[in-house]
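pasting for the record
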Amino acid sequence: MADHLLVTTTTPDRESAAKIASSAVAAKLAATTQVRGPVASYFWHLGEAGEVPE
């Protein structure tokens, strides 16, 4: 089993991508996720979920 995985997918719109990204972090299935065009990062850090534009 791999210690780290990189998963890339496409979605029909930015809203769907944001929902998948934030849900994966909230469920602790991902430590961080990014949505491109413009980039937004969703993450779990110090016990809190966060979202920031980049």
